[in-house]
Predict the structure.
Amino acid sequence: MRQPRKNFGLSEDGDDTPYSEVRKKKRSFHRGDTVNYNPAREEFASSTFLQDYLLKGWMPAAPFVTRETKITAFGSCFATNITKHLLGLGYDLASKREPNIYISSISDGMVNTAAILGQFEWALEDKKQPVNLWHGFKAEGFGYDEDIRVRTRDVFLTTEFFIITLGLSEVWYDEQTGGTFWRAVPEESFDAARHKFRVQTMAETKAHLAEIHRLIRKHVPNAKVLFTVSPIPLAATFRPVGCLSANAVSKAIIRAALDEFVREQPEELNRKLFYFPSMEIFQLAFTDPWSSDIRHPHGYVIETIMQTFEAAYCEGERTLEDANRMLQLYRAMNLQQIEKGAPLSAADAEALREAERARKENMRSRPPIEVRSKLDKRERDRGSDEANEAEREARIERRVALRQARKELRKEAKARERSRNEGSP
Amino acid sequence: MNRVRQRLEAMVRAIKKKEGAPSAKRHFHRGDVINYYPDRDQLKSDDFLGQFLLKGWVPEEPVLNKGVKITAFGSCFAANITRHLSSIGFDLSSDRDSGIYISRMGDAMVNTPSILGQFEWAFENKDPAEHLWYGKETERYRYDDEVRQRTRKVFLDTEFFIITLGLSEVWYDARTGGTFWRGVPEHAFDPDRHKFRVLSVAETKADIARMHALIRQFVPQAKLLFTVSPIPLAATFRNVSCITANTVSKAVIRSALDEFLREHEDEINKTLFYFPSMELVQFGFTDPWGNDWRHPENYILDTVMKVFEAAYCSGGCSMEEAIQTFNLFREKNLVMVLQKLKRGPENRELINTANRARRQAEAARQKAKARQSRVGDADEGPEQKAASGARAAKKARRQKKRLDMERARDPDAD
């Protein structure tokens, strides 16, 4: 196991080279043409953090969305935040143009990829599922109303910029027809023989994304498409495992599928096809982004993310510089909130100290495996003949013992000094 | 009286809309099992570990004791497992034979093809046609038959495999398809042959399934545990930011592993296990990372290992003890986070500015909302519209008053 470096952030000769540069100097493996480093803690304070460590490789050459651009944004519940923010700035969104079609009202819950694809298939290709799969937030049924279909179709055909937010991979489906429900099965129409639960596979998810993309390209060839993943976790899982691990899987499937799909479209990426890393900004740029239910992020976290979106895609709005400043400010505020929410009682503090003592004690009693492997390696480098394995082992043993003895001596010396110091005043 | 009732009803509607889930609970079918996401209070409760993280992944009885021969290798997080289990007296492969590659270089095999490579080499004598095995300092490891025999012996003796998966970004040889342990040494690099790519989910799943099949074929009695290293990529070779590349790299592994596990439900928690170490580190602690923002702090690794011990090892620490440790170190983590960021006057200034900016943004939002509700929303009834318009206006007035007060207090604010 490697430990964080002691001279963290400094190179050996003491100049102020950033940690990433120090690492670069030590190269021994081929590094390719591009290499992007993970930020060290101090780099979070950088005034270009967003574009260096999060947005890099995902931004268009220049912002292209204007107030004239016809936008259609829907998908998982996080899409509502995007809609609200862009509406607030005066942009032209589908939910304002047509507030009563399904894609304008679907976005208030978590949504699977099959449901999103269903809207495209229905509107653009007039493909209907044999059973009703679409239910709103209160389990009210949505039909296949032809008027709504035509209106949805019109909205899609006039759209210049699609923003699609993906949510989850756990779905309820109808076994007879293979159709996936938008949300779940209403209790009154639940039929245990045909309505089943499952986790969508990564291959299915990717196929859905590819099909959405194909339909858009077929019917609205010039539209730009942006995908993003909602950072909001599952409220509950129907799998027999802990919800935290189920959620990690549910998001991992979407994230892996989306990335594989995007990797296969390099000629469109950042030109007509985009990915906005909202999930990553939420989870990784803030210390504790969640409000009290730990499912929904704080308002200011959403604000930061939306400003980042604005800076990357919207023409003539606030810039990345502003977004970075916002991020720094809100990070500070986030910490302030953590502090407020975390007073430590005296008993807890005492228990904490006790546990820390025990842990250190435990660490001291551990066998020095790391030292051993280091010595082992040194022996190998010296090219000692493998023939005399036993002797070599013995030599290592001796060295380990010697090190241990030296350590003991140092400790004793320290203890002596301490007792002398205590004695003198 | 009527107006009061109307307002109350509007409030209830608003709350219901906001909360969402509880009202939906009455209407949708919820299945036989349902496991909820924790809330803040549950994060601190004693059953957090059991209910929200380990549920469904823990065997009924501990499966490890001091007599069980364990073989643990894979990504660098595997070294932590090895060290911990070895220190509490368990029988690890790295103690039984420290010379073989999986003991020496156990932390180098970070991608699934490399881990599979060791199994295929040991069991089927399949050695890659070219040099793929390079250690940390670019030293090369030979396809030595003696080492192979010894690796084979260790594998055949093993009763419990612990395999830690690490990442999905690999360097490979385009001509033979072989994947390097870490990367290609600069001196051996040939741009025509040596390429970089991200492994697909299908490949990763196939590799995992093959490992499982080989173990079942050659060591049928052995149990197998998979875990994913929580440690992120140090750097990506993709031309995108490392944070996003790392999310993908882990997502590929996590989704492939889970798909594989879902297809072997009959074996789960009996002969096939998953230990959610990644979730434990990511969700269990406010800020688990050290200064390099890659390696978890030592006390966090200790906690993870304690939980592992409680879940799988008999005679080790009990689950109660693990929970106690977990709760304590979570507190410690919080204390450390706040200590690390002890704020000086310049930070306080930063926070004040942030609060001010936030209030301004809020006021602007309210104003925009008020403007919008004046324009009219199609799905709002006339009474509701009037009520919400009045509410927004009142809120905006309050907001403005607060801002004015602040400006009076702090004349050089803008």
